[in-house]
Design a protein that fits this description.
Blueprint: H1 2-16, H2 24-60, H3 64-112, H4 116-119, H5 130-172, E1 175-177, E2 180-182, H6 187-207, H7 210-233, H8 235-240, H9 244-296, H10 302-319, H11 321-324, H12 326-354, E3 360-364, E4 369-378, E5 384-394, E6 399-402, H13 409-417, E7 423-430, E8 435-438, E9 447-448, H14 449-454, H15 464-473, E10 486-487, H16 489-492, H17 495-509, E11 513-517, H18 525-538, E12 543-547, E13 559-566, E14 569-576
Parallel strand pairs: 3-7, 5-14, 6-12, 6-13, 8-11, 11-12
Antiparallel strand pairs: 1-2, 4-5, 4-7, 9-10, 13-14
């Protein structure tokens, strides 16, 4: 019961947001329509149940006129039932797509907001495969929640409707045992209840492991698919290293986990289906066994017997909703757990940025630089990495940051960008200042080359002629004819070409502070020098802060800052105050 209450609380928390959103009236209207149709279908079932009594009595009495009349009534009921079924499905699907669109946008917004997607990866307990949870688990959650919820409402209303009918039929056809009439009020209802309770208990006992097995199935399927994508995206490196056998072994091992989980699901499902199949088949004959003595004692006509059997079946099916929907319920609980884990992971990422011990990145009224005060940048486990007691990246001087590999130079840049929360201290950035970070391996979305250059802005924000001119300026003039072509540019271009394209992006956006994290390291020194001169000439108002190891970079920076060892961490130290050779 605790598990059920916990699951229902999570479902309510996830689902209620949509029905309180800006799309709530459309969602509530569609939900009300779906429920109303479900109730109308129950009413049709009740009328068909009464029709069955009249129809079979007409057959037993050889009453042709009554037979024809009942056929016409059945056609009318069946026609209405078909229309209700069609529109019930149609409106249900309409509600699903509206709900899914809202939930997908909601999760995408929270996942991508304020670099949450990045912070979620920084902890060891990071949620696996967020892409699957947004793309597939949201879809499954909505489908299964509506299916189970509407089905449960239908089951409850069906139970309430047919219990009354079955109780009355129990009085009209009292129980006969060994030729004697036994008075048990509502014995058919009690029989259906006992049968359903036994079936439900056995189903839970047999099928309980399916919840965890389905959770693991989704996880292992997603892990296998994710690693396939990684092989595709890193095909060149794998081919150069002749890593195909290693990748095959790695992928086979992950797929082996999928197969092992599937066999476990098969085994448990076989037992569950064996039982539920037997349960459903027995449910057909049980009411006939209970009512047959009264029928052969001529206490009830054929129509009454058929109506009783159907009413018993409806009551038993309603009471056995848990049995019939168990596999769906097991899958649903796994989906709910995955979405709950995803929300928890997002909440932790959001909390990281707001923790008192986190690095505070705030706006400053000063215009002459980025100030670091009492800054300690640490690893996620709390190990100190970089300190800066009182340091400023001045806006009137380009700065080169050097230091040994692993000293924390890139992590310092992440902290300035506001995406690295681990540590303490403050970073003051001039109000309304624009910052752009260019890493060693830049990112380009799959799309047109023009969109790749203008990212993260829309491609229409810059004139095509300006983009062509900048392409030529960074040495990629040969790509001008491909400006409107769509491709996976991270795979299509060499790393050196990608770095040139990233510089073109910086030239387009013209940020006030440009951070280059070894962003030209794959270029030869003359090409690197040309790009730095181009940046200085084209962006005279931009402050460039670079990470690099080449001594030739000193010529393009007025200040040289080094990360020097200090105890168990590195400290930011100004090496020279001015570089007269800067150009």
């Amino acid at each position: 019961m605790n598990n059920i209450r916990s699951t229902l609380a999570i479902v309510w928390r996830i689902a209620i947001r949509y029905f309180r959103s800006e799309d709530r009236w459309a969602g509530l209207g569609l939900l009300a329509a779906v429920i109303a149709i479900q109730l109308a279908q129950v009413a049709i079932d009740v009328m068909v149940n009464a029709w069955r009594n009249r129809f079979y009595n007409a057959l037993q009495q050889y009453d042709w006129d009554a037979f024809v009349r009942e056929l016409l009534i059945f056609c009318a009921l069946a026609g209405v039932g078909v229309v209700l079924s069609v529109y019930g499905l149609y409106l249900n699907q309409w509600l699903q797509i509206r709900w899914r669109r809202w939930m997908t946008n909601h999760y995408l917004g929270r996942w991508l907001d304020g670099a949450n997607h990045y912070r979620m990866q920084l902890r060891r307990d990071a949620v696996d495969n967020p892409d699957q949870r947004i793309a597939e688990d949201v879809k499954s959650f909505i489908e299964q929640t509506l299916g189970i919820g509407v089905g449960l409402i239908g089951a409850v209303v069906t139970l309430a409707s047919f219990v009354v009918i079955l109780w009355g039929l129990s009085e009209a056809a009292p129980l006969h045992l060994f030729g004697s009439e036994v008075s048990i009020p509502g014995y058919l209802v009690w029989g259906a209840l006992i049968y359903a309770v036994i079936g439900t208990a056995l189903t839970q006992w047999i099928g309980a492991p399916l919840v965890d097995l389905n959770f693991q199935r989704e996880r292992r399927e997603a892990d296998f698919r994710f690693n396939l994508v990684r092989v595709r995206e890193n095909g060149e490196q794998i081919a150069l290293l002749r890593g195909e056998p290693a990748e095959h072994e790695r992928l086979s091992a992950r797929y082996g986990a999928v197969i092992a989980n599937w066999y476990a699901i098969m085994s448990r499902t076989k037992r569950l289906v064996f039982f539920t199949g037997s349960y459903d088949q027995a449910a057909v004959i049980v009411p006939h066994i209970l009512i047959a003595p009264a029928y052969f004692a001529k206490a009830v006509p054929l129509g009454g017997m058929m109506q009783t059997a159907e009413a018993f079946g409806s009551v038993q099916t309603s009471l056995s909703f848990f049995v019939s929907a168990y596999r769906t319920l097991a899958e649903w609980r796994a989906v709910v757990a995955r979405l709950d884990g995803f929300e928890t992971s997002i909440a932790r990422a959001e909390a990281l940025a707001g923790e008192a011990r986190a690095i505070d990145v705030a706006s400053s009224n000063k215009r002459d630089g980025i100030d670091l005060a009492q800054l300690l940048v640490s690893l996620p486990n709390g190990t100190p990495l970089v300190t800066a007691e009182a340091f400023s990246f001045k806006s009137d001087a380009h700065t080169l940051v050097t230091g040994p590999s692993g000293a924390g130079k890139s992590t310092l840049f992440r902290a300035i960008a506001g995406i690295w929360p681990f540590g303490r201290g403050s970073i003051a950035v001039p109000a309304d200042a624009t910052l752009m970070m260019l890493p060693q391996r830049p990112y380009f979305p799959v799309g047109t080359l023009r969109a790749a250059i203008t990212y993260p802005g829309p491609e229409e924000s810059f004139a095509a002629d300006k983009v062509r001119g900048i392409l030529s300026a960074v040495g990629l003039g040969r790509l001008e004819p491909q400006l409107e072509e769509e491709a996976h540019w991270n795979q299509f271009l060499s790393l050196g070409e990608q770095q040139r394209l990233a510089i073109a992006r910086a030239l387009l956006h013209a940020p006030q502070y440009l951070f280059l994290d070894e962003a030209t390291a794959s270029l030869d020194e003359p090409a690197e020098a040309r790009l730095y001169r181009l940046l200085a000439e084209s962006l005279p108002e931009t402050t460039i802060i670079s990470i690099g190891h080449r001594s030739t970079l000193q010529a393009f920076h007025q200040r040289n800052v080094a990360l020097a060892p200090e105890g168990d961490h590195f400290a930011l130290r100004l090496r020279t105050t001015e570089n007269a050779a800067a150009s």
